[in-house]
C-alpha cells in the first residue's frame, strides 16, 4: 500500500484501528479514548519505521484528527437523526404585514421557536416548524386567502397579525375551523372569543389604570391628544367615566402636520396635563414639538399610552424637570429577562435587530415571544394526557379540527402565575404585568 496516496490514507488508518470499534462506540462512548490511544501507537510505529520523515508523520497526525472528528460528527448526526425519528413535527402559522417583514416581531417569533426546539425542555418529543406569510396591511381578502393556504398546509395554530382589522378576519377563520389563534394586539371587542388567546392587556384595564393615575395626581384639567380615530375609541371610557365628569377634558385629534398647532393651543389655555396617543413612528416628531414650544418644564405632565416609551430618545427631557409617565410590559432589570435578551442578541441575524440601541425590547415582539411560549406550555400539558391529532382541514370543507378544542382548552386552563414562577426565564412581558415608569426631575425611575 502506498502511504503517500491521499485517497488511500483514510482506508489505511481505519484498517489499523481495532476490529469491532464501531460496536464498541455504540455501547460505550468512552471507547473514543481507546481509539485515540491505539491510533497514536500506530502512528508512532509508523514514525519509527519512517525514520526522520517528519512531514509524513505530520500528515498522518493531521489526517487522524480530521478522520476522528468526522467519525464523531457522523455519530452526532446519527444521534440527531434517531432523535428526530422519535420527535413529531408540528407546524405553526404566522401572518405578518409586509412592513413587518424582518421586523423585531418576526424575529422574536422565529427566536421563540428556535429556543423551544434547541432546549427541548418544554416539548422534548415535538419539533416546532413554522410557515410565515406576508400580507398587505389594508387587504383583508388577501390575508384570509393566505390563512386558508396555511390551514391547507396543516398548521395547528395561527399567530398574528397585529393589525386590528386583519386580526378580526383571521380570527373568524380560526374560530370556524377550531384552530387556536394567538394574538398580541389591541382588541376593543369585549366579547369573549373561544379560540383566541390574546396577551395584549385589555383596554378596559388600561383605562382604569389611566384613571387611577389621574386621580392620584389630582388632575382637574386634562387634554387627550389622539392621532387616529381608533385612538379615540380606545380612550372613550376616560371621557365617559364618572370621575372624568369632575374634571375638564379637552379632546384634540392631531398628526405631525398639526402637532404644533394643538400643543400651542394647550399651552395658551394653560392645560399642562396631557394624555398622548400617537403612532410610534411619529413619536420623535411629537417630542421635538414639545421641546420647540418649551413645554418641557416641571409644570407639564405627559401620560403616553405607548408601552415603548423607554425605546425613544428622552435625553433632552432629563434636565428640565418635565414629568413623563407611561406603562411598560417588560422589566428589563429582571435577571431572567436580561438572560433572554442576551440570548436574543446572539441569535439575531446580521443587519436585523430584535432589541433597540438601548438593548430594550418593544412590547409587540415581547408579546409575540410570550405567545409562542404559552402555546408550547399548553401543548405540553395536553401531550401529557393524550396525543394531538394532526389537522387535516380546509376552508372549503369547513369541518372543525378535532384536536383544536382540546388544545385551546389546555392553553386557556394554564395558571400563568404558576407557570411564570416555574419558568421565570421563559417569559418576558407576562412577568411584570403593568409597570408604571416615570421620567421626572432626576431621570427615569420606577414608580411602585
Write up what this structure looks like.
The protein has 448 residues and is an alpha/beta fold. Among the domains are: 88-200 and 362-414, Rossmann fold (3-Layer(aba) Sandwich), CATH 3.40.50; 203-334, Response regulator (Rossmann fold, 3-Layer(aba) Sandwich), CATH 3.40.50.2300. It is 46% helix and 14% strand. It is built from 16 helices and 12 strands. The chain has helices spanning 9-16, 21-27, 31-50, 54-85, 104-119, 140-153, 164-177, 203-216, 229-234, 236-240, 259-268, 283-292, 335-347, 363-383, 404-412, 416-422; strands at residues 88-97, 126-135, 158-159, 181-183, 196-198, 221-226, 248-253, 273-277, 301-304, 323-328, 435-439, 445-446. The strands form 2 sheets. It has a 7-stranded mixed sheet with strand order 7-6-8-9-10-11-12. Strands 2-1-3-4-5 form a 5-stranded parallel sheet, with helices on both faces. A hairpin with a 5-residue loop joins strand 11 and strand 12 (445-446). Helix 5 (104-119) packs parallel to helix 14 and helix 14 (363-383) crosses helix 15 (404-412). The longest helix has 32 residues, at 54-85.
Task: Offer a few descriptive terms.
single chain, 448 residues, alpha/beta, Rossmann fold, five-stranded parallel beta sheet, 16 helices, elongated, disordered N terminus
Indicate the percent of residues in helices: 40-55%
Number of separate strands: 12
Radius of gyration: 30 Å
CATH superfamily of one domain: Response regulator
Protein name: Glutamate receptor, ionotropic kainate
Subcellular location: Membrane
Pfam family, one: ANF_receptor
InterPro entries: ANF_lig-bd_rcpt, Peripla_BP_I
Amino acid at each position: 500500500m502506498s502511504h503517500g496516496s491521499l485517497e488511500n490514507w483514510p482506508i489505511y488508518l481505519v484498517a489499523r484501528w481495532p476490529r469491532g470499534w464501531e460496536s464498541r462506540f455504540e455501547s460505550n462512548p468512552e471507547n473514543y479514548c481507546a481509539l485515540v490511544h491505539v491510533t497514536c501507537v500506530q502512528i508512532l510505529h509508523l514514525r519509527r519505521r519512517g525514520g526522520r520523515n517528519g512531514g509524513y508523520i505530520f500528515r498522518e497526525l493531521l489526517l487522524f484528527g480530521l478522520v476522528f472528528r468526522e467519525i464523531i460528527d457522523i455519530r452526532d448526526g446519527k444521534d440527531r437523526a434517531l432523535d428526530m425519528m422519535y420527535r413529531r413535527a408540528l407546524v405553526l402559522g404566522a401572518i405578518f404585514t409586509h412592513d413587518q417583514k424582518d421586523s423585531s416581531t418576526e424575529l422574536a417569533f422565529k427566536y421563540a421557536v428556535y429556543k423551544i426546539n434547541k432546549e427541548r425542555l418544554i416539548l422534548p418529543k415535538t419539533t416546532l416548524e413554522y410557515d410565515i406569510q406576508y400580507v398587505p396591511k389594508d387587504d383583508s381578502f388577501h390575508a384570509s386567502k393566505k390563512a386558508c393556504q396555511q390551514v391547507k398546509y396543516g398548521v395547528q395554530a395561527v399567530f398574528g397579525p397585529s393589525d386590528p382589522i386583519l386580526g378580526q378576519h383571521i380570527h373568524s377563520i380560526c374560530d370556524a375551523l377550531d384552530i387556536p389563534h394567538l394574538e398580541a394586539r389591541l382588541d376593543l371587542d369585549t366579547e369573549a372569543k373561544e379560540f383566541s388567546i390574546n396577551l395584549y392587556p385589555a383596554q378596559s384595564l388600561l383605562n382604569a389604570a389611566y384613571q387611577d393615575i389621574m386621580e392620584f395626581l389630582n388632575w382637574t384639567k386634562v387634554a387627550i391628544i389622539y392621532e387616529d380615530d381608533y385612538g379615540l375609541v380606545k380612550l372613550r371610557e376616560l371621557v365617559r367615566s364618572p370621575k372624568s365628569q369632575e374634571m375638564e377634558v379637552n379632546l384634540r385629534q392631531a398628526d405631525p402636520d398639526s402637532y404644533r398647532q394643538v400643543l400651542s393651543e394647550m399651552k395658551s389655555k394653560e392645560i399642562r396635563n396631557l394624555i398622548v396617543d400617537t403612532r410610534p413612528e411619529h413619536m420623535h416628531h411629537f417630542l421635538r414639538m414639545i421641546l420647540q414650544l418649551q413645554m418641557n418644564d416641571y409644570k407639564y405632565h405627559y401620560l403616553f399610552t405607548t408601552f415603548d416609551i423607554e425605546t425613544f430618545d428622552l435625553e433632552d427631557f432629563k434636565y428640565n424637570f418635565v414629568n413623563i409617565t407611561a406603562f411598560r410590559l417588560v422589566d428589563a432589570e429582571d435577571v431572567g429577562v436580561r438572560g433572554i435578551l442576551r440570548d436574543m442578541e446572539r441569535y439575531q441575524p446580521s443587519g436585523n435587530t430584535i432589541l433597540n440601541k438601548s438593548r430594550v425590547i418593544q412590547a409587540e415582539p415581547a408579546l409575540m415571544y410570550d405567545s409562542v411560549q404559552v402555546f408550547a406550555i399548553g401543548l405540553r400539558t395536553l401531550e401529557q394526557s393524550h396525543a394531538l391529532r394532526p389537522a387535516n382541514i380546509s376552508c372549503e370543507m369547513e369541518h372543525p379540527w378535532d384536536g383544536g378544542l382540546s388544545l385551546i382548552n389546555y392553553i386557556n386552563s394554564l395558571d400563568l402565575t404558576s407557570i411564570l414562577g416555574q419558568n421565570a426565564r421563559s417569559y418576558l412581558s407576562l412577568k411584570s404585568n403593568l409597570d408604571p415608569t416615570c421620567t421626572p426631575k432626576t431621570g427615569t425611575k420606577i414608580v411602585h
